[in-house]
Amino acid sequence: MMMNIPVAYRFVAIIICLLTTSKVVDGAIGITWGRQSVQRLVPSLVVDLILQNGVRNARIYSSQTDILEAFSGSGINLNIGLFNVAVILDNNTAFDWVQEKVVKNYVTANIRRIFIGNYVFKSGDNYQRIRNDAMTTLEVIQYALNRAGHGDIKAALTHDTPVLKDNPTRPSEAEFKTDLVVDMSRVLNTLKANNSPFVIKIFPALFVLNNNMPPIFAFPDNNDSATFVKDINGAVYTHAFDFIYDSFLWALEKAGAGDLEVVVDQLCWPTDGFPGGNFSAAERFYRVLLPRVVSNRGTPKRPGRPIEVYVHSLSDETRIPIFEPWGRHWGIYRSNGEPKYKIDLTGQGRDIYPARAKGIMRMPERWCVFKNNTLNANILEKQSQIACNGGDCTSLSLGGSCSRLSFEDTVSYKFNMYFQSTFQEDGSCDFDGLGEVVTENPSTGECLFPVEVVKGTQNLFDKQNSTSGADHGKGMHGIGDRCAVCFVLLISVLWAVF
Fold this sequence. Notes:
The chain is of the alpha/beta class. The chain has 13 helices and 14 strands. A hairpin with a 5-residue loop joins β8 and β9.
C-alpha cells in the first residue's frame, strides 16, 4: 500500500521549495497535472513531488474537493479547471459552484484562477454553440467570484494557436480568425474589465510542423541564422516559443487588448508518439527555455517582461482519448514515479533529474509476448485490436519509440500493454492461445516494454467519474490539432537530423 506522507515530511518539502525559489524573479514556472491514466498518482504524493521540485504554481484539471484538500496548506498557487461549459450558464448556478469550490477552499488551497473549458474556442459554425456556452460560463463565474468577495481570483478561457489566422510568416501579421472576431471581442471585454489574463497553449514542435518551418526552429537554442524570422521594429525570432507568444500579443493588440497579461497554461513537448517527441529532445527544449522564462528577458515584443508558463505535464495520461498518439505522452514522470529525463523546474538550468516519487512498487518482472505460433492475419488483427483497446499502444505510432519494431515484437508489445493494464491478471495473456508470460525483458533499443506498478499503490482510473460533471475534462486537455496527424509522415525524416 502507498505510505502516508508524514506531516513533518511535507513541512520539509515546503522549506525546500522556499529555498530553491528564493531568487527574486517575476517569471514563473508551474506544472500541470491531469489524472486520466490506468493508475493515478495519489494527490498527496503529487503535492510533495511539486514541492520537492521547487515549484510554486500548479494547473490542475479538476476542482474535486479531495484534490483541493490535498493542496491545502502547501503554499502552491492553484489554477483549477472547470471543463463542462454547458453546466454553468446562469448566475445562481455559478454562485453555488463558487461557494462549493472556491469559498470553502480559498484560504487553505490558495486558488488563484479558474480556467474554463479546454481550448473549446474553435473556428467554424459547428462550434458556435460551445463558444456561446464558454463565453457565458466565463461571465457568470467571474461575476460569482466578484459577488463572493473573491474578485482577486480570475476566470479565463484557454486558447490554442488555431484561433489565429493560418500560415503566419511573422508575428506582426497575426490576428484572430475573421469568424472569431466578434466572439473574441466579447471575451476580451470580460478579461479587461476584471484584469484577467489571456491564456494560451504553446506546442512548438507541432507549430513548426503545421507551418512548414524547419524542425530546429522549435528549439530555443537554435543558432541557424538561416531559420531566423525578421519582423518589424528590428525584431528577430530565433525560435518558436517567442514567435507564438508574440503572435498572440500582436493579435490581442489589434483586437484592442494589447495590455492583457498572457499566461501559457500548457508548455508542451511530448516524449513519444511524435517525430522528435523523445526524452532527449524534451530535455534539450526545457533546459534552455525555462531559465529564459525566469530571467525576465521577455520576448521581442515585450522585452524585460515576466512570463508565466506551466510545463505540461507531471505524468502521462494513458486513458486520454486517442486523437493524436502523442497526446498521452506529455509526462515528466512514468507511472511508477521515476522521471523520464533531466529537467530543472526552478529554471536555474541545473543538470538534474527531478525528485523521484517514493513508496510506489512495481509488479513482478513479467511480460506478455507473442508465441509466434501463427501467421494468420485475421486472428492476429483481432487479438491485437483487443489488446490495444485495453492497453495503450500509441508508442507504436509513426515517430513513436516503438514504431521500428519487427512484426513479431509489435504483436508482443500490444499483448504486453494489455497484460500490464490488467496488473498482470491471470488469463490476460492468453489471447486465444497466442500469448505467453516470460521473465526475460523483451525491451529492445529505445522501445521499453513496461511493467505496471502494484495495484493499489495509486488511485485507480475510474472512467465514469473521470468524465462527468463540470469538474472533469473528458481527456480534452490532451487534444490539439487533429489535422497534424496528416503531416507527421512528411516531417519524420527531418526530425531525425536534429
